[in-house]
Specification:
homodimer; alpha/beta; 12 strands; elongated; DNA-binding
Chain lengths: 338, 338
DNA sequence: AAATTTTACGATATCGTTTTCGTTATTTTT
DNA sequence: AAAAATAACGAAAACGATATCGTAAAATTT
């Protein structure tokens, strides 16, 4: 049962290929009776159009790329799921790529997409991404981009984020209200707008409560897990030991837990921990983790919806737009007052 | 900077399209000097071949589909990552689809893939999948399939699994050795081979240790989270309350934790819990969860490697092969002797 | 020097669709 | 009844890349 094409159908029906094509696309140029015959045979033989022929002809691939830093993170998975939901509604397919937070890999992926393999791109930047030519190139090649979470302000397009400043503020204030005085911030990357906003919110809360900002409590983490473990260990055993940690991303909070287990620091007695996180098991951790949870699924849905809106119009320039959703603070044991 | 094609290059160089094509593919028919000129111009203008034209011509899309029941599960994510790693090496792209464990959705996805959109498929079946025509159709249409984890014995192809019988046995014996006498098994689906094998291993261990099999301790769970919560709650509050639970999949173990928290059952004092799981946070849970961890990343890599081996040979019939990897038992607090 | 091979390239068909433009009949309008 | 419009279809040109033929000139062999 090798694949059947329009020519096969045409031959069997003794009509032309073009008529078959039109019949299947329900053109008014074809008589109703002929259409019926065509449709019947197509169904019987299980005809299904070759997608790539159509893509070539129409210059549209009904495919988008979704580029995320990693997959082993529920936030991105939920966002992808959200985007996939919308994609299915629009009969689009999603190619998933991961950068492993590596700028070079990100550039390599985008350059592979320059050739029209996808109609559009949804991306959350790698933490090491420090310039944006690979992205402007893509847009200039006619491939629209929508950002989510790890966005890039420098590029004019739609960007879906959460209220990171307010959330950073809220998280920090929550720690302060529960008695913390020396709050450390675990930063993931100075390149990322979201990290900066979260940090600014953290500073602002400290200011409001007349706590002096101590830059030594801002720990710069990276993409290297072992280095991060060392940084956190040093922070927690060094002279500027904090009484609370605000982790900008989930991975750093989990490392904090691991380090605390290892060196015998008790959460929340000795150290309170709060983190941005979409972890399903936050409530089951020891102790349960107080989180700021982003509406990841919704973010993915919105990103895809906006992209498809422009693709339908065949416009590659997306109007600049900042869509900001609200994150939610869920208070659990890791920040309990003692 | 609209897209540039072979014709554009040919015009600028005053040679034919076919020569340009051959030059770029490093054909011996083209003089070295000409090749250099062509390559230089291609580089300068950022030429990148239209993938779909090549797909149409070659009847190969350099794309495979990966179908998984869900993405919010570290096992599948790791498997996907493994497959992606291999795909990148082979210059292949991966289309990711999720069935949400829904048989109908799985059928819908496979039927969409019948038209040559992908060259091959890697799949882990939905738990509700009860017949396999949609899969044999795919193979008959010339699209090879490789299974991983949730496989289908009825179809002749390559299947990557883990030693589920042995692992089920080991898990159960571990519970017995730590003093459990009434061990419940949380089953995810009777359709799934892996579930049956895990259960058989469970039975075998009970037999070995002269513990009578009690079918009332085998709890059939489903795809409905609320129903599962109720089932587990009934199990734990009913007349046949077990002193240990062996969860066939991670999701059920987490629900068990949640239910125990809610109704005040203490793990491991009142109930020991062991589960198949690739959860990163297993060690950080309260209590830390004893797990049987499958080599998911490796499974994905192997599945992709086998598939690409056949795709390179342009063979759509994959020789039947059962590749069985070993899972690993990691003992933690949830099964501690008391 | 004639015959043969090699080199380096071009013309063209092909992959499977879609779409524009003809081209007949047939129907409607004047 | 002549003119115009419409209905229903077919031929053919794209879309962009590739591979199979040719073919002319140059190089080699006899």
């Amino acid at each position: 049962m090798s694949k059947i094409n329009l020519k096969d159908l045409a031959k069997k029906l003794n009509i032309s290929v073009s008529s078959v094509s039109k019949a299947l696309r329900d053109s008014h140029e074809i008589a109703e009776e002929t259409k019926k015959k065509v449709r019947a045979l197509a169904l019987e033989l299980g005809y299904s159009p070759n997608p790539y022929a159509g893509f070539l002809r129409n210059q549209k691939s009904k495919t988008i790329a979704l580029i995320a830093p990693e997959l082993t993170n529920n936030f991105f998975i939920q966002a992808i799921s959200g985007a996939e939901t919308i994609a299915q509604e629009h009969d689009y397919h999603i190619l998933v790529y991961t950068t492993n937070d590596d700028f070079e890999k990100e550039k390599s992926i985008t350059s592979h997409l320059m050739n029209g393999r996808v109609d559009g791109v949804i991306i959350s930047l790698a933490s090491s991404t420090s310039s944006y030519n690979h992205l402007t190139d893509l847009i200039e090649a006619g491939i629209p981009i929508v950002f989510f979470d790890r966005i890039c302000h420098e590029i004019e397009t739609a960007k879906i984020t959460t209220n990171d400043f307010a959330s950073g503020f809220m998280a920090t204030e929550h720690l302060i209200n529960n008695g913390s005085k020396k709050i450390a911030y675990l930063s993931i990357s100075e390149n990322l707008s979201i990290d900066n906003k979260r940090k600014q919110g953290y500073f602002e809360a400290l200011n409001k409560h007349d706590i002096k900002i101590d830059e030594r409590l801002v720990t710069k983490c990276s993409n290297d897990e072992n280095k991060n473990i060392n940084s956190i260990k040093q922070l927690l055993t060094g002279p500027y030991k904090p009484d609370a940690i605000f982790a900008s991303i989930e991975k750093l909070a989990l490392l904090t837990y691991t380090v605390c287990n290892e060196i015998g620091i008790k959460i929340p007695q000795d150290l309170k921990v709060i983190s941005f996180s979409n972890l399903r098991t936050a409530a089951l951790l020891n102790p349960s983790l107080t989180t700021i949870t982003q509406p990841a699924f919704e973010m993915g849905k919105i990103a895809a919806t906006i992209l498809f809106k422009y693709l339908a119009k065949r416009r590659s320039v997306i109007i600049n737009e900042n869509i900001i959703l609200k994150s939610e603070l869920t208070i659990r044991d890791s920040t309990r007052k003692y």
